[in-house]
Amino acid sequence: MEMHFATVWEAIADAMPDTPAVINGAVSRTWRDYDDRAARAAGALRAAGLGHDSKVGLYLYNGNEYLEAQYAAFKLRAVPINVNYRYLDDELWYLLDNADAEALVFHTSLGDRVARVKDRLPECKTLIAVDDGPPADEAEVPVVDAAAWEDVIAGHEPMERIERGEDDVYMLYTGGTTGMPKGVMYAMGGLTGGFVEAAFPMLGLPSPSDPSEIAGIVKEAGDKGDRLISVPACPLMHGTGGWLGALTPHLAGGTVITLTSRSLDAHELFEVVQRHRATGVVIVGDAFARPIIRAFDDAAERGTPYDTSSLKSIISSGVMWTAEVKEALLERIGHVVLIDAIGSTEGSMGLSISMKGMSAETARFTQMPTTRVFTVDGQPVQPGSGEVGMVAAGGNVPLGYYKDPEKSARTFRVIDGVRYSFPGDLATVNADGSISFLGRGSQVINTAGEKVFPEEVEEAIKRLAAVEDCVVVGVPDERFGEAVAAVVSLAHGADIDGATIIAEVKRHLAGYKAPKHVVFVEQVPRAPNGKADYRAAKEQAQAAF
Fold first, then answer.
1. What is the Cα–Cα distance from 457 to 361, expressed in whole angstroms?
2. Distance of CA 422 to the CA centre of its chain
3. In whole angstroms, what is the distance from residue 274 CA to residue 418 CA?
4. How does 32-48 read in b/e, with b if 16+ C-beta sit within 10 Å?
5. DSSP state letters, 111-143
6. What backbone phi and psi angles, to 5 degrees, belong to 421?
7. How far apart are CA 275 and CA 205, in angstroms?
8. Averaged pLDDT, 152-172
9. Among 246, 300, 402, 404, which residue's Cβ finds the most Cβ atoms within 10 Å?
10. 469-513: pLDDT as tens digits
11. Strand 126-130 vs strand 101-107: parallel, antiparallel, or unpaired?
């Protein structure tokens, strides 16, 4: 039996067919139903002419259909392609064209954009629409000739199960806020096995020595009442929600529950946790954690506190999760474990674990056994030296970027016979061997010859109770070359001026790191996955100054 998402899930569906696999709102699908619907969708894709290595675009919000369509592509040995649902016409066309998409599954509320680009996609053989109503902002919606998702499911027999290869390609598109999206390619066997290896010990399950053992292990755990029920509060179209919130829990035979709201509704999140006795929630840093804290407090003040006793973990990845916010969560939900995973689509690099009674930390991580920090000339950064180096992720390193050999050669490199991924993160190595992340090198601000890492300035600003969120960027400056600028949103009812914010930063950091400008906005620009949109923030800062 090969280590492959589809093959492992088929075995789990056979072992525990009546266990819920996916839930969205009132719609719950067992593993038997989940497998059957994905097999029928796979049959439809094959009937349309798709096969091994065909690319299937998923232009969808969170929901059962996203996971079913992804599973269908895996069954066919095709490649599901995550598409950002915020993309407009040209962005949508670029990604689908770059990916060589042969099929597109999309929500009808996004259908106007699909209609305007479909004629520019000659390789696309089939369009399948998931009905969620018409586009909200269109008076006259262009007609899209697409099959209805439920008709596709009902109108096709399940595709027979097939043998698959561990060298099948898995691809996740990343980027867009600092450049054009890039498809990061992994070997299916390595990625599936890596998720199993990481997840099973964290769940208290024995690591399988062979893929054929997985279904038996998770069934035995489920029979004992030890089952993972995961709620990804962030988009499935990004790695944090898709990998940590869905793919990994499903490998453990878990249930994945998606929220019905199109943006984070923390009250809905708690209601789902309470109703379904969820064991894990996946978020993206402070941008998600702060509303969760407010919702928890609101319910307590109303005299109807949420029951969070089933929760075992809250996992975050991708952006800063500050110590103050972690501590605030643990004050309210003291029995959970907070798992702060540092990584990117190109590789996993470290973990930080926080529990009640432990001192929470910001941007300080225990590195993975395969993680290294190198100088620009390829030498290891010595612990305690204070030297800034490039973080390199080893282990299951991607195959490269799709159709971009030059970028691949720059990012995925061999040092001393070992292949590493260099996503662009910079860090120092502490004396105890832990690593302190400073941020993405592409965002470093050069001001008067000094380097300023936006993340550490953002952390200092967020210590102020009046500050809801902030992003720090560099803006052109005649004297300094670049000046540090903070784009800040305030908590509801709060009042603070820029001078106070600047003074707060100077209490914690060297003076040159303090913002020269503070721009107040209603909402700090972030992508749906919670990551800062530095490009938009820089435009706001430049417009203000």
1. 15
2. 18
3. 46
4. ebbbbbbbbbbbbbbeb
5. HHHHHHHGGG-TT--EEEEE-S-S-TT-SSPPP
6. -105, 130
7. 25
8. 98
9. 246
10. 999 999 998 888 889 999 999 998 999 999 999 999 999 888 889
11. parallel
Two structure tokens written together for 138: 């269109």
In whole angstroms, what is the distance from residue 313 CA to residue 280 CA?
5
Q: Exposed, middle or buried, 333 (CB in 10 Å: 0-12/13-18/19+)?
A: buried
> In this predicted model, which residue has the larger pLDDT, 521 or 206?
521
CB contact at 8 A, 120 and 93: yes
DSSP for 473-515 reads EEEEETTTEEEEEEEEEEPTT----HHHHHHHHHHHS-GGGS-
- What is the pLDDT averaged over residues 105-121? 95
The pLDDT, as a whole number, for residue 140 is: 65
pTM as predicted: 0.88
Task: Transcribe 14-52 into DSSP letters.
Answer: HHSTTSEEEEETTEEEEHHHHHHHHHHHHHHHHHTT--T
Residue 6 pLDDT > 60: yes
Rounded to whole angstroms, the Cα distance separating 413 from 408 reads: 8
> If you search the block for the tokens 């470093």, which residue do you land on?
444
Tokens of 174: 């990343």
Cα distance between residue 34 and residue 258, in whole Å: 14
- Please answer whether residues 127 and 59 qualify as being in contact, where contact means their C-beta atoms are separated by less than 8 angstroms: no
Say if CB 367 and CB 347 are below 8 A apart.
no
Give the length of the chain.
545
CB 148 within 8 A of CB 174: no
Q: Identify the residue with better confidence: 332 or 451.
A: 332
213: CB partners within 8 A, 6+ apart: none
Amino acid in position 17: P
Sign of CA dihedral 154, 156, 158, 164: negative
pLDDT over 80 at 95, yes or no: yes
**Per-position DSSP letters for 345-414, written without gaps between them:** TTEEEEEEEE-TTSPP-SSEEEEPTT-EEE-TTSPBPPTTS---EEEEB-SS---EETT-HHHHHHHEEE
**Ramachandran angles phi, psi of 63, nearest 5°:** 165, 170
Neighbours of 479 (CB within 10 A): 8
> What is the distance between the alpha carbons of residues 153 and 165, in angstroms, rounded to a whole number?
26
Q: Smallest Cα–Cα separation from 342: which of 329, 352, 327, 353?
A: 352
Neighbouring residues of 168: CB distance < 8 A, sequence distance ≥ 6: 4, 52, 53, 77, 187, 188, 189
Q: Is 106 helix (H, G, I), strand (E, B) or coil?
A: strand
Tokens representing 367? 């590195």
Q: Report the C-alpha gap between 328 and 334 in whole angstroms.
A: 10
